[in-house]
Amino acid sequence: MDDKVDLMNRDPNNINQHVQSNFEDVLAEPDGTRSADCVWIYSAKCFNGGKSCCYIFLSALCGIFLGLFWGCGFAMISFEQIWCATPMYRCFSIYAIYVQKCVGTYLSCYLGPLCETCGLCFSRIRIDKSG
C-alpha cells in the first residue's frame, strides 16, 4: 500500500470539478450593472478569505473524523461485496443453472408434446368465410 499523498494535486481524478467555487464562478456583474470598483475588489477578497478560513476550520475540525468515517464505510462496502454479495451471487448462479435444466426438461418432456398434440388436433379445423 502506498501511503504517500500528493500535496500538490489533491484531486488527480477530477472527481470534484463540480464544486468549483471561485469568486468569478459564483458572482458576476453584467454590463450596465456595476458596483464601485472598491466594493468589487473587497468583495472578492472577503469571499476568498472567508471561504478559505471556513474551509480550513471545518476540515481541521471534521476532516480526520470524516476520513475515518468514510474509510470505514468503504471498508464495510468492500467487505460486504467480497465476503457476502459475490459468493451469494455465485451460489445463486449455480442453483439457477440447475433450475434452468429442470424447467427445460419439464418443458421438453411434458409441455412440448402436449402443445404439439394440440397443434395437430387444431390444424385440421377449417373456417369457411363464404357463407
UniProtKB/TrEMBL annotation:
**Similarity remark:** Belongs to the caveolin family.
Membrane topology note? Peripheral membrane protein
- Please state where this protein is localized: Cell membrane; Golgi apparatus membrane; Membrane, Caveola
As for what it does, the entry says: May act as a scaffolding protein within caveolar membranes. Interacts directly with G-protein alpha subunits and can functionally regulate their activity.
Q: Which InterPro entries match?
A: Caveolin
The alphabetical list of record keywords is: Cell membrane, Golgi apparatus, Membrane, Transmembrane, Transmembrane helix
Biological processes per GO annotation: caveola assembly
Show the GO MF annotations: molecular adaptor activity
Entry GO terms, CC: caveola; Golgi membrane
**Ranges that cross the membrane:** 55-79
Protein name per UniProt: Caveolin
